[in-house]
């Protein structure tokens, strides 16, 4: 097995960036989901409603990338650096509610795990058996690993994955939400992905992993179990 894609999402729910290599710390990929679009009630813009999150689908029309140490947000009306009051103003207008782009504080930005990963064989199974657009960007995974057996990553829960100097330990399957159906991150159109996963896979695809030993990983690195 090897790493074939590394993706980071500097602002939660926005489109992300593909990276040739990245550093992992105890929290996950450095800078991943560090910022979020936050409303006056403290809830984070996302594709679902919960105690921590508020459904704001328009946030998916935006993307974020790192540029010389800063996070740059781009959308239909232009692009701004995080921290520029103009960014908060244009997002407030676009979302129809006062919001700000804020760094993580007491409310954790990550959904349920430090690192989200999925295997290529699992995505291919979804394309063939569910007849849906299983573009990896719909899953918002951090790591995509080249695999030959569908859903083999689920069998790694509790084991250690060695990728370069990094040690990861898969801890649980990822239960998906309606976000997988949305147009996002350069992927146009909506899908019945979630309904198909519910019927065949208990809504689960991919796994969350915790960082046991931090370090740097790169595309092409071998993955040892």
Structural notes for this entry:
By secondary structure, the protein is mainly beta. It has two domains: 29-103, no CATH class; 112-224, Beta Barrel (M1 Pyruvate Kinase, Domain 3), CATH 2.40.33. The chain is 14% helix and 37% strand. The protein has three helices and 18 strands. The chain has an eight-stranded mixed β-sheet. It has a three-stranded antiparallel β-sheet with strand order 4-3-17, with no helix packed on it. Strands 8-9-10 form a three-stranded antiparallel β-sheet, with no helix packed on it. The longest helix has 11 residues, at 85-95. The model has no long low-confidence stretch (mean pLDDT 95).
Compact description:
The protein has 225 residues and is mainly beta.
SSE diagram, text form:
Layout: E1 3-8, E2 17-18, E3 21-25, E4 28-29, E5 35-39, E6 44-46, E7 53-55, E8 63-67, E9 70-75, E10 78-81, H1 85-95, E11 99-103, E12 115-119, H2 120-130, E13 143-145, E14 161-163, E15 166-175, H3 193-201, E16 204-213, E17 215-218, E18 223-224
Parallel strand pairs: 6-7, 12-13
Antiparallel strand pairs: 1-2, 1-13, 3-4, 3-17, 5-11, 8-9, 9-10, 12-16, 14-15, 14-18, 15-16
Named at the architecture level, the CATH assignment of the largest domain is Beta Barrel
Query: What portion of residues is helical?
Result: 10-25%
How many structural domains are formed by the residues? 2
Let me know the CATH homologous superfamily of the largest domain: PK beta-barrel domain-like
Query: What's the tally of helices?
Result: 3
What is the SS-derived class?
Answer: mainly beta
CATH level 1 class label of the largest domain: Mainly Beta
Major beta sheet, specifics?
Answer: 8 strands, mixed
Order of helices and strands: EEEEEEEEEEHEEHEEEHEEE
Instruction: Assign the CATH topology of the largest domain.
Output: M1 Pyruvate Kinase, Domain 3
Compute the separation of the termini in Å.
Answer: 9 Å
Number of strands: 18
Sequence of strands across the biggest β-sheet: 2-1-13-12-16-15-14-18
Radius of gyration, rounded? Answer: 17 Å
